[in-house]
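Case study 2.
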Amino acid sequence: MNIILIGYRACGKTCVGKRISGFLGRPFYDTDEMIQRKTGKTIRQIVEEEGWPAFRKSEKATIGEVARQDGAIIALGGGAVMEPGNVEALKGKGCFVWLQAEEETLRRRMKGDGASTEQRPPLMIPGKEDEKELLARRGPVYRALADLVIDTTGRSVDEVAREILAALGVPPQPPLRL
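Prediction:
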């Protein structure tokens, strides 16, 4: 069974996914990081040079690859679940965990993450949609998919990872001593 982390940008998917991976000794895949490694470009560069459709095409291919895994921890990009083909590729192959945080927490985390600004494109096209509208559109999709919902607001990565594992009935493995 895979543990598939979904949620809005800056909700903690990558940090929590890496921690769970470490606790369980299982592989971790961050689809955004995988795309950047394969293309040699940041997501921002892909979107600016080729547009969102090119990024989404890469994302779909990457999700197709990770969907073949078993026992992995997978962090999806925030908009990945808006594409039904991505959801179908992963459905039945794991547990979807929706990581949430209050809007102000998300904004603060995005501002505090310099890499996010440099590597990620703006989510909205000025004059077309604002953050609240984007959250409102994605929220019901996250909710429909989620087997488990965890609020990360004001909590440490360790606390969140342990709560997920406890809810799934998967005890963390003790670290190997050499």
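The first strand starts at residue 2 and ends at 6.
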